[in-house]
Amino acid sequence: MDLRTAVAERARIEGNLVLVDEFLNHRVEPAVIASVGRSLATAFAELKPDLILTAEASGIPPAMACSHELGIPMVYAKKYLGTGDRYSFAREVTSPTKGVEYRVEVARRVLPPGLRLIIVDDFLARGRTAEALGEIATEAGCDLIGFGFAIEKCWQGGRERLERHGWKVHSVVELEAIEGTSVVIRNHR
Questions:
Q1: Are 115 and 51 in contact (CB under 8 A)?
Q2: CA 110 to CA 139: how far, in whole Å?
Q3: Which CATH number, 3.90.180.10, 3.40.50.2020, 3.20.20.70, 3.40.710.10, labels domain 3-77+110-185?
Q4: Residue 189 has pLDDT above 70, yes or no
Q5: Is 132:104 a contact under the CB 8 Å cutoff?
Q6: Tell me: the pLDDT tens digits for 50-103?
Q7: Average pLDDT over residues 117-142
Q8: Alpha carbons within 13 A on the beta-carbon side of 83
Q9: Rounded Cα–Cα distance for residues 109 and 69 (Å)
Q10: Does residue 131 register a pLDDT over 80?
Q11: At a CB cut-off of 8 Å and minimum separation 6, what does 136 contact?
């Protein structure tokens, strides 16, 4: 089963949240995540990335699937509550689902300058976590060649936030709206 079919048939709605935790980001189904990896790898293969960057924990499955398809390593930014004294690149982010502020950090030793990288995550909503990862990649001296997301909530402005930086964005499934207890899936651009 591919992601589009899984979202159409199995996503649950709770308020403004689109829950895909039964197949994508809590319970992870191999066929669904493999389809995400193939789609993202196809979108970015010509750009020849060296590395994938993501955030723990929900970004790890799609990033790993894409990493496997492209045959390149991935790094995940660790999340910490509060501050710390670690030799890392870091940014403060507020979780849209939990409303908690946390830091995303990447150890400097695993993100050397000059790498061509893509950032992959499970969702693009408001785009603050993705933007923070983009800022980290830029600070590290990497060549950020694009962002890949499994699912994008188009009405929340995340794509626009990232594109204001000049960053390329690709989403496997784009959601136009929530209508009652289902989502409206956009046809591909």
A1: yes
A2: 13
A3: 3.40.50.2020
A4: no
A5: yes
A6: 999 999 889 999 999 999 999 999 999 988 766 666 666 877 777 666 677 777
A7: 95
A8: 1
A9: 25
A10: yes
A11: 53, 77, 89, 90, 91, 104, 106, 111
Contact 95, 131 (CB under 8 A): no
Most distant pair of Cα atoms in the chain: their distance: 47
Q: Which residues, listed in sequence order, are joined to residue 51 by a DSSP beta bridge?
A: 117
Burial of 82 from C-beta contacts in 10 A (0-12 / 13-18 / 19+): exposed
H/E run at residue 174: strand 169-179
Q: What Rg, from alpha-carbon coordinates, does the chain have?
A: 16
Cα→Cα distances 188→37, 85, 91, 170, 183, Å = 17, 44, 32, 10, 15
- Give the C-alpha separation, 119 to 22, whole Å: 23
